Amino acid sequence: MADQNHIAIIDIGSNSVRLVVYAGPVRAPQPIFNEKIMAGLGADLATSGKIEEPGYSRAIAGLSRFKALTTAMGIEDVRIVATAAVRDASNSGDFVADAKRAGHDIRILTGREEARASGNGVISAFPGADGIVADLGGGSLELVRVRGGETTHHSSFPLGVLRLEALQHAHGRAFAKYIRRTIAVANWPGDDAGLPLYLVGGSLRALSRYHMLDAPAALRVVAGHHIAVDAARKLHLRLRKYGVHDRERLQELTSARVNTIPAAAALLVPLADQLQSSELIVSASGLREGLLFQDLPATVRATDPLLVAAVALGRRSARFAPVGDAMNRWIAPLFITDTPAEARLRLAACHLSEAASTANPDFRAERAAETALHGHWLGVDVPDRLVLAQALFTSAGGRGRYFDVGEDATLDARLTRAWQWGLAMRLAQRLSGGTIAVFAHSQLQRDNSKLTLTLEPGIAAMMGEQVQRRLNQLASGLGLSPRVAV
Question: Which residue numbers in the chain have pLDDT < 50?
């Protein structure tokens, strides 16, 4: 990625100060460097009203390091923002001046700007998001309505995790009622009751990892993880009385967030109750990604982040030329009943079809599956990742089904379809040798009980034993008889 444009964002939050460097397509930026300092700038705001030591000095020292790092990396586009702690602190001016001496011009976001950026971060990762975003930071909680690619009804509340312990002591048993009342005063949910609640922020992500410890899951990925409201309620009750065992489990997840996870759960339950949330969906994209996303032209924001990222990786891994679009058009006549959502995943798989082409042959299929399972993909959930992985595993020579999904009939049917895509992609790869021209002079058709591969006379010599073998495998997978025509 050395020849790509790089963007760095320094996010000065109430709990942490973080530097993230991004590269790759602007619609699907890849985080290539990520470092945080748990400074706790907002730890004493509720009592003293200012940023206290040692957090103050730790943050300034961290900012000095981040300046040295971004200079060494040669990054010219560095954006520095601060949120609730700096916004609300009585010594905010001193902190901004010291940060400037460390080489940074800080932009202090208003509560509305912070909420809007968090909402746009969710939209960037979930293009069809229709619900309410809750961004829980150290100093504040932001709520924002997202729908149709836009953000509306922004609110910021002084309910960050670093303030919640004091609020719990102050209100005791009435804490949940206090949270609901505070949210209701700002007209939440208004006409937006019963929607999904998208969770943003380090403490809420840590809470979701804690949930995944006991929740059955084929793949433990935070982004897009779903939590039922009742499950969140049980987590809260468990954390209220957790013992040594559960604290050790929390430490295994994230020692830096261990003390904020119970507070996050205590806030989340009355928040979801007040909003009458239908479900909880975790977003790994938030304020930083939202700041990048909202600066893009509308035409770029409207593009599909999964396909943008798949195209970029396809270009980097192509043996001769990117084949994704041509391959997808070639195999598409076999899958005309695919829904638009499934056709989107099939196209992404075709773009990624050569991602493991240089891997050791003994591990090529596993490497291909890993590309789908563990890649930094936006706009997909865990079942989508499994579908992509099955298609790529099969296309790279993997035998049979890669996953056992038990009694999940819907996912089982999707994986069977992905297996068929993989067989078709494998035939396309063998016939073309990774080139494009062959696709324009041949075609696949299914008619009644036959699968026909038709070649123009000029490329008839491209037919061979290996091509015939893969045609036979595809035909068998589709329940058809193979046929070759020139």
Answer: 244
